[in-house]
Automatic annotation (TrEMBL), chain B:
Keywords: Cell membrane, Membrane, Transmembrane, Transmembrane helix, Transport. Gene3D superfamilies: MetI-like. This is ABC transporter permease subunit. The chain crosses the membrane at residues 47-75, 87-106, 211-233. It comes from Bradyrhizobium symbiodeficiens. SUPFAM superfamilies: MetI-like. Pfam families: BPD_transp_1 (PF00528). One of its GO terms (cellular component) is plasma membrane. It comes from the Bacteria. GO terms for biological process: transmembrane transport. Residues 49-229 form the ABC transmembrane type-1 domain.
Amino acid sequence: MRLEVEITGKTFKSAAGGTHEVLAPLKFALQSGEVGVLIGPSGCGKSTMLRIILGLDDDFGGHVARPPEARIGMVFQEPRLLPWRSVEQNVRLAAPDVTEAKLSELFRFLELDAHRNHFPGELSLGLARRVALARAFAVEPDLLVLDEPLASLDDALAGRLRDEIATLVASRPMMTLLVTHSLDDAIRLGDRLFFLSPRPARIVQDVPIAIPRAMRSEADLGRIRAELAALQLESK
Amino acid sequence: MLRLLSFALFLVIWWIAALFVGGAKLPSPPAVLEVMIAEASSGALFLHLGATLARVILAFVLAMSLGSAIGYLMGRVRLADKLGDPWLILLLNLPALVVIVLAYIWAGLTEAAAIAAIAINKLPTAVVTLREGTRALDRSLDEMASVFAMPRWRAFRHVVLPQLAPYIAASARSGLSLVWKIVLVAELLGRPNGVGFEIGVAFQLFDTPRLLAYSLTFAAVVFVIETLLVQPFEARATRWRPRAA
C-alpha cells in the first residue's frame, strides 16, 4: 500500500474577504511500514494538510492517492473521545470488529485496564491520549495518523508514551504519518523526516534515516541530531 | 422531602386564601377533594381525563417527532434553514386560538382537527430548540466519526443523539406543559369530552369546585408524567456529566 500526496496549493478565505495561501505546492509519498514525520513551526499548515490527507477537506488543488480500502486510525491532538461513552465503548464504536483478546492486549499494554468503564471526563489528558491510541490501533489501521500525540504532557510521561507508540507502530506494517514539532520525537519514531517551512507550508528538507528504528542507539541519535543541525544551517 | 414540604405549603396558602375569599369563588381543599371523589366514583373523571390524556400524548408525539426532524434538518442544511425560517416565525407567532378555530372550520369539529391544531402549536418551539441543539453540535466529533468510517446510523446514535438529548429533554418538558394548556382550549371549543369540555360546563354553571377538581387532577397527571418519564430520561442522558454541586 502506498500513500501519495501531491498538493498544488490550498488557499483559505478569511472572514474579512482576503485569501490566504496555507499550503504551497508539496509532494511526498509513504510506503507500508514506513513512518513519515512532518516537522514544522506551529501554524504552518500541518493540520490543514492532515485534514486533506484524511479526506475531511476536499477544497484544495492537487490530489491525494490512498487505497480506498485502507483503514485509517487517527490520534487527534485533542483526544476527541465521546464524553458520554465509556472508554471501552469509545474504542469499540470506532472498531466494531475488534476481538476481546486484541482489546485486552491493547488495554493492558497502554495501562488502561482499570479505566475500561470510566467516562473520558474522569481521565487525565495522558490517559485520554492512551484511549485515543487504543482506539486508533484497535481498527488495525493501514494508515495511522498521529497529530502531536505527545503535546502538553510532562517529559517523563511523554517519554513513556513515546516508547509505547514506538512499540505499537513496530507491531504492524502500516503507513504512519506523525506530526510533531519535537525533533527528538521525530528522530526516535520516524523513518523519513519532512521539514516544513512557515506558512504557506512547503517541504524544505526530505531526510531519510538509514538506521532502522529499533536499532538506533543513543550514540546514533546524537549523530543524527548533529547531521540535521548541519543540514538546517546549510538550507538557511 | 423538600418537594413534599413545598406542596404542603401550597395547600396551606390555598386553604388560608379560601377562608378569606369564601367558598363560592375559591373552595377549600377538602371541598375540591369531595368533588374529585364524587366524579371519580361515577367514572366521569377517568373518562374525561383519559380523553384529554390521549389527545395530549398523540399531539405531543406528533409535534415532537416532526419538530425534532425539521429542527435537525434546519440545523444541518443551510437551504432548509433559509426556506423554513419564515414559516417558523409565522407559526411561532400564530395565536393558539387562531390555529384551533381555523382547524375546526376547515376540518370540522373532529378529533383529527383538534389533535392537528394542538400539534401545530407545539411544533415550532420543538423546531427552534432542536435547531439550536443541532447548530451546537461538535464538528470535531463528526470528523472523528468520519475518519473512523463509522456508518451513518451508528454515528447518529452515538455521536449526534447524545449531544441533542438535553435539547430534546428541554423541548419535551416545555412541550408537555404547552400541549396540555392548549388541549383544554381545543376541547372547550369543539370536543364533547375531556377536561377542557368539563371546564367549559363548570364555567357556564360558575361551578368553581368542579373546575378546580378537573384541572388539578390533570395537573397531577402531568406532574407524574414529568417525574416518571421526563426526569429519568434527562438523568440518564446526562449521567456522564460531572454533577453540579
